[in-house]
Design goal:
Blueprint: H1 3-18, H2 26-31, H3 52-64, H4 71-84, H5 98-112, H6 116-120, H7 142-146, H8 154-162, H9 169-186, H10 191-208, H11 213-218, H12 220-224, H13 241-254, H14 258-266, H15 272-287, H16 294-299, H17 303-316
Helix pairs in contact: 1-3, 1-14, 1-15, 1-17, 3-4, 3-17, 4-5, 8-9, 9-10, 9-15, 13-14, 13-15, 14-15
This protein binds magnesium ion.
Length: about 325
């Protein structure tokens, strides 16, 4: 299976495993840990239903599969998710993060008037509060577009897309580290080697661009921690982009296969679906699509649509 379809299945299956226990605390999950696919729970949805994380990633994938990086089209598809249930499991939205929801509302007048230039400059208005995990959770498909492009193209495109909802540099830097990790996993590197390489590239970016020292400080765990030995008590699967990526990486290194990575992420509690979704793509790239448990994949809503979308996106950028 191609890496784009593998990543899309990896992230959406993981999202669906986390959905029924979203917002459960770690204590609650320690009492009753998730050990297999479940349904219902937090949103009362059947097993295999994925949330906003996957729906918004699929919207980005559809946009990029047109062959273009078109911010206006990307923004339009974010709006369609909120207003039409676009790319939801059954045509109905049941979950949307607060920052993402407000940010999508801000897009409406710009999209209606076709003000693409203003969409391109949304980052200028961003504050430190625009650092939820809502861009990171949906960024994976951008890898298909970026993978054959020079490294210098990566951050500008990542930041433009991220800024549709999360404009702060920190969100873009987390997305950069994440997509470079995915890139090195696809190239066949081990988890350790892939993360080491992605970290070096991020540090190099700091040296080349004017990244404030405070950002480097805030990303210190992402840049330096040994995730294989980091204690569970040291990570938090919450909605802050930095903590969220730390938690996903912790799970990626803690697990020994796709299943154990996803369960480790979900059982951290809080933003369970998003932590799992972020860990799910690299886990599938690392262990292979065939390692996703059959009963999880069989339950996944719109599995055939997702596979077809991944194949289409992959083909668009393989020449
Ligand atoms: Mg969600």
């Amino acid at each position: 299976m191609n890496p784009i379809t593998t990543g899309l299945l990896g992230l959406s299956v993981a999202d669906a495993i986390g959905v029924p226990v979203e917002f459960n605390s770690r204590d609650e999950l320690d009492q009753n840990p998730v050990t297999d696919i479940r349904g219902y729970g937090t949103y009362n949805q059947p097993p295999g239903y994925f949330s906003d994380d996957s729906s918004l990633a699929f919207g980005l994938a559809e946009s990029l599969a047109t062959g273009d990086f078109d911010l206006l089209d990307q923004a339009r598809r974010l709006l369609r998710y909120k207003h039409e249930g676009y790319w939801t499991p059954a045509g109905q939205l049941f979950d949307i993060g607060i920052t993402t929801s407000r940010a999508i509302d801000r897009l409406l007048p710009l999209v209606t008037a076709g003000r693409t230039e203003e969409l391109r400059h949304l980052r200028a208005a961003a504050t430190e509060f625009d650092n939820g995990n809502g861009a990171l959770m949906r960024i994976f498909p951008l890898y298909a577009f970026l993978r054959s492009r020079p490294l210098g193209d990566w951050l500008p495109h990542i930041w433009e897309h991220s800024a549709l909802t999360h404009g702060h540099l920190r969100s873009a830097l987390c997305c950069f580290l994440y997509l470079r990790l995915c890139h090195h996993l696809v190239a066949g590197k081990s988890r350790v080697a892939a993360l080491d390489r992605a970290r070096e590239e991020l540090k190099h970016l700091f040296d080349q661009t004017e990244v404030p020292a405070a950002e480097r400080e805030e990303l210190s765990v992402l840049l330096g921690a040994d995730f294989a030995t980091l204690a569970r008590a040291q990570v938090q699967g919450n909605g802050y982009v930095v903590r969220s990526l730390e938690a996903a990486l912790w799970a990626l290194f803690r697990g020994s296969d796709y299943r154990s990575v996803v369960l480790a992420a979900v059982n951290l509690g809080e933003d369970t679906d998003t932590t799992a979704c972020i860990a799910g793509a690299p886990a599938a790239l690392c262990f292979g699509a065939a390692d996703i448990p059959d009963n999880w994949l069989a339950a996944l809503a719109r599995r055939e649509d997702i596979t077809a979308l991944g194949d289409r996106l992959h083909r668009t950028y393989s020449h």
